[in-house]
C-alpha cells in the first residue's frame, strides 16, 4: 500500500507551507494589525463591519486556497508514489523473468506479479501453442482463483480468445453477476504461444494506472514466454545433437562403448564437489561427453598410433570452438591430455595453466579407461584404479582433484 502523505512528511509540503505562511498569513496578519488600528477610528458602524468582514473573508479564502493546494500536492505525490511502486514492480518482474528457466516459471511469475501490481485477488495465465487448440491455464494465483475459474471459466475463455486474437485488452468493472472486476490483457509478442493474462478483484474497479500496468506486464510476460520457449528448442536441439555425436563416437571407438556418458557423470560429481558454478559445470558436462570428438577425424586403423591419435585434442578443440553451445567446452577438450608436470600434450602446459575442467576431466577419463577392459589389458578393480590415480597425483594429475575423487569413491558416489 502506498504510504499516506502528511503535511510535513515531504520537503515539498514544507516548502508549500512556508510559501503560504510568507505570502498568505504574514500579509494577512499585517493587514489585520493595520485594520485593528483603523477600525476604531471609523465613525460609521457599517464601515467597521464591512472592513472586518473583508479581512475575515480574505483570511478564509486564503485558508481555503491553501487547503486546496495542499490536497492537489498530496494527491500528486500519492500518484507519483503509486507510479514509482508500479515501475519498481515491473523492474522486479523483468529481472525475475531474465532468470526464469522454463515457460511455466514465466507463467507463474507473470500471474504472481499481476496480483502485486494491480492489487488484485486472483490472476490466471491462459496460453495456447496451436491456434486450432483451446487455451490452457498455465498459471493460477490467489486463494479464490480455483473457485472463481470454475464458476466463470467458460465466459472468461471467450474474453481471452477475443483479447489474444485482436491484441486488445478487455476490462469488466464489477458488472458481472459475480460482482468481479476483471482485466483481460493479451500477451505481448507476435509469435506463438498466444494468450492472455486475467486478473480479478471483488467489487473493486481497477484504476486506469493498474490496467495500464497489467497491459505492460502481460506484454513483457508474452515476450519472455516466447524467448524461453525458443531457448528450450535450442537446448533440445543441442542436447540431441550431442547424443548423436556421442553415439557416433561410441561406434567409431568400439572398445570403449558408453565411455563418454560415464565420464560426464563422474566429472559432474567431481566438479560439484570442487565448487564449480552452474556455467562451469555445463561446460564440463559437454566437454566430458565430447572430449574425444576429434577421434572422428582419426581413421580407425590409426587410433592406436600416438603420432595420429594425439592430434584428437587439437582437432576436437577446433571442431567445438566453432559451435556456440559448445565453445565453453573447447578449452577443456584441448587440455584433457595435459599433465600438471608438463609432460602431457598438445602444449605441455603445467599446473594451473591447465584449466580446472581439464584437470578434472583427465582424472575421470583415466578412471573410466582403467575400469574398463581395453584392447591390450583387463579392467582394474576400483581399489587398484584409485591407487593408480593417487600414485600419479602431483605428476600426471592435480592432487586436489584426486583427493575430491577419492572422497566421492569413499562416499559411494562413484
Ligand atoms: Fe582423449
Can you describe this structure?
- The chain is α+β, with helices and mostly antiparallel strands and 414 residues long.
- The protein has 13 helices and five strands.
- The protein folds into three domains: 85 residues; 130 residues, Beta-Lactamase (2-Layer Sandwich), CATH 3.30.450.40; 158 residues, Hypothetical protein af1432, CATH 1.10.3210.
- The protein has a five-stranded antiparallel β-sheet with strand order 2-1-5-4-3, with helices on both faces.
- The N terminus is likely disordered.
- The site of fe (ii) ion has 5 residues, from loops.
Index terms:
5-stranded antiparallel beta sheet, binds fe (ii) ion, disordered N terminus, alpha+beta, 3 domains, Hypothetical protein af1432, 414 residues, single chain, Beta-Lactamase
Summarize the helices and strands and which ones pair or pack.
Elements: H1 11-41, H2 45-98, H3 103-118, E1 122-128, E2 136-141, H4 145-166, E3 170-172, E4 180-186, E5 194-202, H5 208-252, H6 259-273, H7 278-290, H8 306-309, H9 312-321, H10 330-335, H11 356-371, H12 382-391, H13 399-410
Antiparallel strand pairs: 1-2, 1-5, 3-4, 4-5
Helix pairs in contact: 1-2, 2-3, 2-5, 3-5, 6-7, 6-11, 7-11, 11-12
Bound molecules: fe (ii) ion.
Amino acid at each position: 500500500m502506498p504510504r499516506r502523505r502528511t503535511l510535513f512528511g515531504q520537503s515539498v509540503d514544507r516548502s508549500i507551507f512556508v510559501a503560504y505562511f510568507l505570502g498568505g498569513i504574514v500579509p494577512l496578519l499585517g493587514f489585520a494589525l493595520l485594520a485593528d488600528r483603523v477600525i476604531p477610528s471609523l465613525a460609521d458602524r457599517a464601515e467597521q463591519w464591512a472592513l472586518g468582514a473583508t479581512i475575515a473573508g480574505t483570511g478564509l479564502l486564503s485558508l481555503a486556497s491553501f487547503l486546496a493546494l495542499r490536497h492537489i500536492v498530496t494527491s500528486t505525490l500519492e500518484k507519483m508514489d503509486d507510479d514509482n511502486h508500479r515501475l519498481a514492480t515491473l523492474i522486479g518482474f523483468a529481472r525475475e523473468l531474465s532468470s526464469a528457466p522454463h515457460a511455466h516459471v514465466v507463467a507463474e511469475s507473470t500471474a504472481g506479479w499481476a496480483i502485486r501490481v494491480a492489487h488484485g485477488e486472483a490472476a490466471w495465465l491462459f496460453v495456447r501453442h496451436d491456434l486450432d487448440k483451446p487455451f490452457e491455464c498455465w498459471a493460477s494465483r490467489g486463494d479464490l482463483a480455483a473457485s472463481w475459474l470454475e464458476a466463470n471459466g467458460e465466459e472468461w475463455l471467450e474474453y481471452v480468445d477475443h483479447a489474444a486474437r485482436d491484441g486488445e485488452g478487455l476490462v469488466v468493472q464489477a458488472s458481472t453477476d459475480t460482482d468481479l472486476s476483471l482485466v483481460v490483457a493479451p500477451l505481448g509478442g507476435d509469435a506463438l504461444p498466444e494468450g492472455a493474462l486475467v486478473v480479478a478483484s471483488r467489487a473493486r474497479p481497477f484504476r486506469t494506472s493498474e490496467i495500464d500496468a497489467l497491459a505492460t506486464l502481460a506484454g513483457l510476460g508474452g515476450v519472455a514466454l516466447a524467448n524461453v520457449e525458443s531457448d528450450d528448442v535450442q537446448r533440445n536441439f543441442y542436447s540431441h545433437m550431442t547424443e548423436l555425436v556421442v553415439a557416433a563416437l561410441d561406434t567409431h571407438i568400439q572398445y570403449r562403448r558408453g565411455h563418454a556418458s560415464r565420464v560426464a557423470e563422474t566429472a559432474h560429481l567431481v566438479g560439484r564437489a570442487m565448487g564449480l558454478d552452474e556455467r562451469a559445470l555445463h561446460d564440463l558436462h559437454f566437454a566430458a561427453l565430447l572430449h574425444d570428438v576429434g577421434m572422428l577425424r582419426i581413421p580407425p586403423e590409426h587410433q592406436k598410433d600416438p603420432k595420429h591419435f594425439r592430434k584428437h585434442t587439437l582437432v576436437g578443440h577446433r571442431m567445438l570452438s566453432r559451435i556456440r553451445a559448445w565453445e565453453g567446452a573447447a578449452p577443456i577438450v584441448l587440455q584433457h591430455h595435459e599433465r600438471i608436470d608438463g609432460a602431457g600434450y598438445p602444449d605441455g602446459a603445467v599446473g594451473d595453466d591447465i584449466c580446472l575442467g581439464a584437470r578434472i576431466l583427465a582424472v575421470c577419463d583415466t578412471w573410466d579407461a582403467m575400469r574398463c577392459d581395453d584392447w591390450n589389458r583387463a579392467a582394474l578393480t576400483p581399489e587398484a584404479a584409485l591407487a593408480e590415480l593417487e600414485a600419479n597425483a602431483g605428476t600426471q594429475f592435480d592432487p586436489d582433484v584426486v583427493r575430491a575423487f577419492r572422497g566421492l569413491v569413499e562416499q559411494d558416489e562413484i
